[in-house]
Design brief:
157 residues; alpha/beta; 5-stranded parallel sheet
Length: 157
């Protein structure tokens, strides 16, 4: 199985980018993982929130295949502790899907079409974090999840 993270907008903080890259490289020991960054939409000041969500949704949908399992990182999604999240990952790995795609939307969330396409929603916290920080937190939790599945000591250092 492959895991892909799709996110809107590049990270402008080099420290966050470096930390994200560290965890991304660590994940390579466990699974084929990739990140796809969709550039920010231009001229957003001329768009309503709904129009921006629609445009972002179309861009995200164009990056998905019909067989992808799609999980939206959404504030109203299911929350897990790290062990529960590792079990969630294991369930998808056992399901036989080829690619599991997690999506971080834009600042206003997702279009209705994205919710229709999604197989599930996941929330990392009830708190609000920048989209750039969510990338790091999510990738670290993916890494942690795989170390839990392998019974490695990272989770309880």
């Amino acid at each position: 199985m492959n895991i892909k993270l799709i996110a809107i907008g590049k990270t402008d903080n080099k420290d966050l980018e470096n930390l994200t890259n560290i965890y991304q490289s660590r994940l390579g020991f466990y699974i084929n993982f990739s990140i796809e960054i969709i550039p920010d939409i231009k001229n957003v000041k001329k768009l309503s929130e709904e129009q921006q969500k629609q445009k972002e949704g179309l861009l995200i949908l164009s990056k998905l295949s019909a067989t992808d399992a799609v999980i939206l990182l959404d504030e109203n999604g299911k929350q897990f502790d790290s062990v529960g999240f590792s079990s969630y990952l294991q369930k998808y790995m056992n399901s036989g899907i080829k690619q599991l795609v997690f999506v971080i939307g834009g600042p206003y969330g997702f279009s209705p079409e994205m919710y229709t396409k999604a197989n599930g929603k996941l929330s990392l916290s009830k708190m609000t974090f920048s989209h750039q920080m969510i990338r790091l937190f999510f990738i670290e939790q993916l890494y942690r999840g795989f170390t839990i599945l392998r019974n490695e000591p990272y989770h309880h250092r």
